[in-house]
Amino acid sequence: QDPGALEAEHEVQRRERFFSLSAQPGGVFLKGRLDRVAGETLRVALDAMGQYGDETRSPGQAAADALAMLAEGACAGARPTAASGGGSVRPASGETGPGAGASDAGVTSGTVSRPHVSLLVPAETVAELLAHQRAGADVACAPVVLPWGTVAPATLEDGTPVPMTELARALCEADITRIVMSAESLPLDVGRTKRL
Fold this sequence. Notes:
- By secondary structure, the chain is of the alpha+beta class.
- About 35% of the residues lie in helices and about 25% in strands.
- β8 (about 175-180) and β9 form a beta hairpin.
- The two termini are about 25 Å apart.
């Protein structure tokens, strides 16, 4: 897909974004619309709460519970942990690295993998992005402008294309793993995860 057209499509989605809460006698009603990248981020965050439909609640009720847990955790300054099926939260202590928070009840030792959105980025797309940023400024996270070269877009795991401006924003804080793929789309070599 043409990078310029992808940017324009993304901007249309961004302009149409909204979210509202309406308190009614029967409860609080939510209504909204997000662009595809923001929507995927929300989906990953909700999935990390570990709430699933079962014989006691529907998938929609489980999703509502996950959203409430996400909000409660944010209000309490907490982060999700997979110690109880991914559905519990604990206060952020500022600890980092292996074993951080290992003394907390119910938390296993080792590094807890935080929820994340995965982007699949062709090497030539990264090169194009870096060339744009070097041309525009000396800082790594400088704003980038059109026009872009014709390169394959980054995608979400479901194949949704990601515009270059969103990719640039994501790469400012991303952990990157180099993966060499075969012609049959099989991984041949996986490099170490690092920051760009």
